[in-house]
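From the pipeline queue, job 12 of 40. The input is one protein chain; the requested action is below.

Action: predict structure.
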Amino acid sequence: MHGLTVEGVAARSGVAKTTIYRRWRSKEDLALAALLELIKEESTPVRHVGGTQAALSAYLGRLIDNLNSKLYGRIVRGLISDLGVDLELARGFRERVLARRVAAMRALLQRGIARGELRRDLDLEIAVDLLLGPIYYRLLISGEPLTRAVVDRLVRAVMAYGR
């Protein structure tokens, strides 16, 4: 979390550092709380409009828009670097951020199965990994751009896998 300090947050918010530390144990926990607030501001978490392909594209398009935004993307990148060493932070991120994304993807895929757009024996775990994994890979490792075209390619691939 380069550039983020509890001292800086305290100064900008007009409270003492101790006030911040009473609520959050570290700057990483504070960053996770900020990320959760941004996620709360998102519109309806799962859109059930149109077909499954359109709904997946819309949801993932909003996700990459958020990840490409300066604040949201910086927070996620900063948090991810700390997940390997801070088990409590990692658990909180998985339970409060990733679980939300996974649940949304599963709901859209299950809807596709129920509508006959995807096969009944679709491996939901792998399908979710195929949709979310490349997005986080591009964000954190390869540095390749996160674009709507990439989202459309991912969704088309998963839809083909699921038929």
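Job complete. The radius of gyration is 18 Å.
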